[in-house]
């Protein structure tokens, strides 16, 4: 087993950026000129699976789109931070509320606004289409692009490394 897979055994929580991670980094614009975010159902399934297995999940984003917040609320994400200018403050709030240590957190980001906070966690990771500076500090670069299953990739790998991938009570009828 690779060193990265061994490190995944220490993960107790997941934190994700939105634009370029949970959604694609390109979006059509609506009538008001605001980007229309995407959502990947496989990412949603993985987030629900992680939550069902007892892993806290946080979303930290500089943007604000009510539909994105509602989606994650419906998935069961309790720690949702939007309109954020300092992601480190939000990470610290999340750590304080969950009692988890930074070395036990996997954070997925894709652009320079994630750089500082990614240096503060145990496993910084990124999607395949992240900027080069983020790839350089990531312990893993997913073969998947942002909004195209990169979140599913890292959650599934983590839970498989910990032999917890599929809970027995996971219903296939849940919306993701």
How many helices? The count is 7
Order of helices and strands: HEHEHEHEHEHEH
- How helix-rich are the residues, as a percent range? 25-40%
- Got a strand count? 6
Global structural class? alpha/beta
Which regions have little confidence, pLDDT < 50, spanning 5+ residues?
none
Please report which band the strand proportion falls in: under 5%, 5-15%, 15-25%, 25-35%, 35-45% or over 45%.
Answer: 5-15%
Biggest β-sheet description: 6 strands, parallel
Radius of gyration: 15 Å
Mean pLDDT: 90
Distance from first to last alpha carbon: 31 Å
Strand order of the largest sheet: 3-2-1-4-5-6
The best one-word shape is globular
Task: Write a structural description.
- The chain has a six-stranded parallel β-sheet, sandwiched between helices.
- With 176 residues, it is an alpha/beta fold.
- It is 35% helix and 12% strand.
Short description:
With 176 residues, the chain is an alpha/beta fold. The chain has helices spanning 3-8, 41-52, 66-75, 87-98, 115-118, 132-137, 150-161, and strands at residues 13-16, 57-60, 79-81, 105-108, 123-126, 140-141.
């Amino acid at each position: 087993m690779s060193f990265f897979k061994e490190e995944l055994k220490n993960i107790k929580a997941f934190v994700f950026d939105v634009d370029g991670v949970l959604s694609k980094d390109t979006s059509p614009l609506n009538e008001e000129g605001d980007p229309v975010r995407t959502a990947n159902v496989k990412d949603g399934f993985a987030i629900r699976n992680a939550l069902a297995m007892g892993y806290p999940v946080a979303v930290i984003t500089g943007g604000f789109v009510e539909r994105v917040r509602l989606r994650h609320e419906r998935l069961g994400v309790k720690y949702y931070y939007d309109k954020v200018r300092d992601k480190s403050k939000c990470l610290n709030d999340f750590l304080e509320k969950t009692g988890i240590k930074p070395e036990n957190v996997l954070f997925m980001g894709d652009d320079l606004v994630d750089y500082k906070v990614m240096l503060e966690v145990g496993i910084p990771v990124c999607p395949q289409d992240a900027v080069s500076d983020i790839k350089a500090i990531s312990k893993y670069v997913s073969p998947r692009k942002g909004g195209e299953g990169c979140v599913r990739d890292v959650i599934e790998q983590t839970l498989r490394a910990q032999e917890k991938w599929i809970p027995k009570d996971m219903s296939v009828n849940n919306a993701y």
